[in-house]
Design brief:
Strand order of the largest sheet: 1-4-3-2
Order of helices and strands: EHEEEEHEEEHHHEEE
Distance between the termini: 49 Å
Largest sheet: 4 strands, mixed
Shape: elongated
CATH topology of the largest domain: 2,3-Dihydroxybiphenyl 1,2-Dioxygenase, domain 1
Strand content: 25-35%
Number of domains: 2
Length: 180
C-alpha cells in the first residue's frame, strides 16, 4: 500500500468507477476489492466496501460510503494530453459516459468527480508568461473542451476567426485571413 493514497467517496459505485478509469486512462488499474464484513449504515455484509485502484499512476481507494457526501470542484484530477486526439478521447469518454461539460477544460464524470483535460500546449503557453500566456488564457476562457489549434494560434498571436465559414482560418496581427 502506498504511504499516501487519495480516498474518493462514492455512494455505491466505487468498483464501477474504478473499472471505468482503468479502461479510460493509461497507467490505471483496479487492484483489490474489499467486501464489508458486516452491515453498515449504507450497505450490507458482502457489499463492496472499498476498491484499490490507480488513475494515471496515482494510487486511490474508492469508498462506498453512501449518499452523505458529494464530490465537488475543490478536488480534481488533471490529465495532461499531447494533442487534440488524446484530449478528445478522454473528454468524450468522461462526458459521453453520463458526465457533464464545464468550462476551461473541466468536466465531471457521472459520479461527480471533476477532471481537467489539459493539453500540454496550454500549460506550456501559460508557463511562457507575458503576452503569449495572456492570449492563450483569453482563448481558453471561452472554451469548454480545449481546442488545441485555437491555443496554438493564440500563442502565435493569431485569433481564431469568428465567422462560421472559416473553421480553420485564423487572422494574425495586421494580416488578412490565412489558413494554418
Amino acid at each position: 500500500m502506498a504511504k499516501n493514497t487519495i480516498c474518493l467517496w462514492y455512494d455505491k459505485d466505487a468498483e464501477v468507477a474504478a473499472r471505468f478509469y482503468a479502461e479510460t486512462f493509461p497507467g490505471s488499474a483496479v487492484g483489490a476489492v474489499y467486501r464489508a464484513p458486516g452491515d453498515y449504515p449504507s450497505g450490507k455484509a458482502g457489499d463492496v466496501l472499498t476498491v484499490d485502484f490507480t488513475v494515471a499512476g496515482v494510487p486511490c481507494i474508492g469508498l462506498n460510503g453512501g449518499p452523505a457526501f458529494k464530490h465537488n470542484e475543490a478536488f480534481s484530477f488533471q490529465i495532461a494530453t499531447d494533442d487534440q486526439q488524446e484530449t478528445d478521447r478522454y473528454w468524450n469518454a468522461i462526458v459521453g459516459n453520463g458526465g457533464q461539460e464545464s468550462q476551461c477544460g473541466w468536466c465531471k464524470d457521472k459520479w461527480g468527480v471533476s477532471w481537467q483535460i489539459t493539453p500540454r500546449v496550454l500549460t506550456e503557453a501559460l508557463a511562457a508568461g507575458g503576452d503569449e500566456a495572456k492570449r492563450a488564457f483569453d482563448a481558453m476562457m471561452g472554451m469548454k473542451k480545449i481546442d488545441v489549434a485555437a491555443i496554438e494560434a493564440a500563442r502565435r498571436g493569431w485569433a481564431k476567426a469568428k465567422d462560421a465559414t472559416s473553421d480553420n482560418t485564423y487572422t494574425g496581427p495586421g494580416d488578412s485571413k490565412r489558413d494554418v
